[in-house]
Amino acid sequence: MEKSSSFSFVPKVRLWVDAQDSDGNWRLARITEVYNSDTVLVSFDGRSTRYDKICYLSNFTVTPLRLHTQGYTGQQRITTRDYEIQPSQVKLMEQKMTLLRRTEFKAFSAYELTLFIRGDLFVLIDDLLTKVYLVILLVYH
């Protein structure tokens, strides 16, 4: 089922979005640079920076998060992320989850909550699980 492409959002660095890769596949991505209100550089989740791509809001190659994707859209065997998880990231996620619990999920708008759960938190958990999985593979094989 094709989703509507009538939307508006302001592109910001670190914002999770859906973006079309070079093959035309929709993938979870993060804006890494904003050139102007129409042109952004995105980094695809689970892929190295060599797959980064310039996308345009005007031709709908970048859209709000989860307009076209569901679940994990990166490499299928081993996730590649060109960064290490920082303790400050984990602490920030913990603080946001505590705030959500204390406010009964009223601390953020529905859109902000979706960005957090289906973007930041999803990627953090996936990254933590992937790293644990890689350690198990290296130790036991």
Keywords:
141 residues, alpha+beta, five-stranded antiparallel β-sheet, 2 helices, globular
Layout of helices and strands, plus pairs?
Elements: E1 16-20, E2 26-34, E3 39-44, E4 53-56, E5 62-64, H1 87-102, H2 110-140
Antiparallel strand pairs: 1-2, 1-5, 2-3, 3-4
How many angstroms separate the termini? Answer: 43 Å
Largest sheet: spatial strand order: 4-3-2-1-5
Q: Count up the helices.
A: 2
- How much β-strand is present in the residues? 15-25%
Q: What class would the helix/strand composition place it in? A: alpha+beta
The largest sheet is: 5 strands, antiparallel
Query: What percent of the residues sit in helical stretches (DSSP H or I)?
Result: 25-40%
Unreliable residue runs: 1-6
**In terms of quaternary structure, what is this?**
single chain
Tally of strands: 5
Radius of gyration: 16 Å
Q: What is the molecular shape?
A: globular
Q: If you average the pLDDT, what whole number results?
A: 81
Number of structural domains: 2
Written as H for each helix and E for each strand, in order along the chain, the element string is EEEEEHH
Describe this structure in words.
The chain has 141 residues and is an alpha+beta fold. The chain folds into 2 domains: 16-64, SH3 type barrels, CATH 2.30.30; 87-140, no CATH class. Helices cover 33% and strands 19% of the residues. It has helices spanning 87-102, 110-140, and strands at residues 16-20, 26-34, 39-44, 53-56, 62-64. It has a 5-stranded antiparallel β-sheet. Strand 2 and strand 3 form a beta hairpin. The model is unreliable at 1-6 (pLDDT under 50).
